[in-house]
Amino acid sequence: MLYHAGWEIRDGHWSYPQREMSSGLFQARYVSELACYVRTIPYHWLMMVLQGEVVVTCSDFRTTIGENAVVHFQPHQPHHISADQPANYIWIHYKMLLPSQEEPLLPLYPDEQVARYGRETVFQEAVVDLPSIIVPRNPNLVRKLFTTTVEEFMLEPPGFMLSSKANFQCLLTALFREATDRSSPAIVSDPAIQRALDHIHQHYDTKMTISSLAALVNLSQNYFISRFGKIVGISPNEYILRFRIRHAKMLLRDTDMRLTEIAACVGFESLSYFSRMFRKLEGIPPSEYKSYKLRTDVHHSE
């Protein structure tokens, strides 16, 4: 269900009074270590950068993302957005509600969902399995679905609830495929960066350093980091980390391997570091992610 949507042009930090804030749906607290406020909301928050660069702070990490990058936060996940130069981005607040009955319902208006079906159907909130940051391989498709969803929702033409939901489902499907499809690794026009990406995709389960990647493509380390970030949208270290976590999630979903085995299979030298990085990106530890997958399997089998 969509709750809010919009466009923003930002050229600074979110501004809050220097005190903790709390309303019915919104909470904010100042984190001295980050020198900024972080907020939490009870919705999934999906955002795409249309122009410029945005600094994303979430829990215990901070990174800069560029044009066409997509950010996804789980409900109640602390986060902060800022920009040193004017940046344009588009965003959606939503919840994924699944009916308990076999036939899915698609009411045209939010009130109708409760009034007409509330006595017969129990809606349960589902976890949306997307990473915090996605760099789409097909940004034109993602941008088109994103902007169409927001335009329909904000302008409210006849049938907008049905149309915005349909487009939003297509958007989530496209992002899920971007994040999970092993058969179509990232493709870029720069030969040196593409060679580095190919190496990461083939050897993510081995020890890898930025200096070795830079040497592989005959670039200085500093220039390689800068060039990689501008083309891919995130740093080499972060790309490697996210690629490993992506494959770890597949193993957690599709196999009965133990956490120590999964950590080793995707290139982590210790279970503790793997668990810490998994929680940093996904908002929950891998053990909880795996148990949620098991609960979901049991629910669907009943």
TrEMBL record:
Keywords attached to this entry: DNA-binding, Transcription, Transcription regulation
SUPFAM superfamilies the UniProt entry points to: Homeodomain-like (SSF46689), Regulatory protein AraC (SSF51215)
PROSITE patterns (alphabetical): HTH_ARAC_FAMILY_1 (PS00041), HTH_ARAC_FAMILY_2 (PS01124)
UniProt name for this protein: HTH araC/xylS-type domain-containing protein
Alphabetical list of PANTHER family matching this protein: ARAC-FAMILY TRANSCRIPTIONAL REGULATOR, HTH-TYPE TRANSCRIPTIONAL REGULATOR EXSA
Taxonomy of the source species: Bacteria, Bacillati, Bacillota, Bacilli, Bacillales
SMART domains found in the cross-reference section: HTH_ARAC (SM00342)
Pfam families listed in its UniProt record: HTH_18
Gene Ontology molecular function: any one: sequence-specific DNA binding
HTH araC/xylS-type domain ranges (all copies): 194-292
Keyword Transcription in record: yes
